[in-house]
Design brief:
The chain has helices spanning 2-11, 41-50, 55-67, 79-87, 120-136; strands at 70-74, 107-112, 141-143, 154-157. By secondary structure, it is of the alpha+beta class. α1 crosses α5. The longest helix is centred in the last third of the chain and has 17 residues, at 120-136. The chain is globular and about 40 Å long. The model is unreliable at 9-19 (pLDDT under 50). The structure holds zinc ion.
């Protein structure tokens, strides 16, 4: 945890602690004049998937993927895919109750590229990074690995229920 926070502090732009409601930190400068000529296919795959994801959550995933190589499995899930995932017990909610069903998606499924689903320890490390760097950017991240029905690859943005 301390290690993750240290990394978070290295990545996060220094903020003025007096101003509590400032805009979220831009992990990737959208005004880059010199866009990279070549985006590795692996990274491009993640970007394509993340296009259906909440931009703040997408930026968090991209930032962490620079520390821990990640593969984005899924962001938005349509009605057919959600109900299929529910039937196969891959999801605990039928359409439209999963955070994957929002547009843009408030949930993302990611796996450490080196280990896939094989290492629970790698998921714990990833969850530590997601939670701490998320918190450093005013985002409370809920991890599926903390649920009774473990869903290690699942991360979502906490939203207050009204
Ligand atoms: Zn999920």
């Amino acid at each position: 945890m301390i290690h993750a926070l240290l990394i978070a502090s290295l990545i996060a732009t220094p903020t003025n602690t007096a101003a509590s409601n400032q805009p979220p930190i831009q992990f990737i400068n959208p005004n880059l004049k010199h866009a990279p000529q070549h985006v590795p296919p692996f990274f491009q795959h993640n970007i394509n998937k993340l296009k259906t994801c909440n931009p703040q959550l997408a930026r968090l995933v991209i930032t962490i993927s620079l520390l821990v190589p990640l593969r984005v499995v899924e962001c938005h899930r349509n009605k057919a895919d959600q109900n299929k995932a529910y039937k196969q017990k891959k999801s605990k909610a039928p359409w439209p109750h999963s955070k994957h069903n929002q547009t843009p998606s408030l949930a993302v499924d990611i796996v450490p590229a080196r280990f896939g689903y094989r290492s629970v320890a790698a998921f714990y490390m990833l969850a530590d990074l997601m939670k701490s760097i998320g918190a450093a950017n005013n985002m409370k991240i809920i991890w599926g690995g903390d649920w009774k029905m473990r869903d290690y690859s699942h991360f979502e943005i906490w939203v207050q229920k009204i």
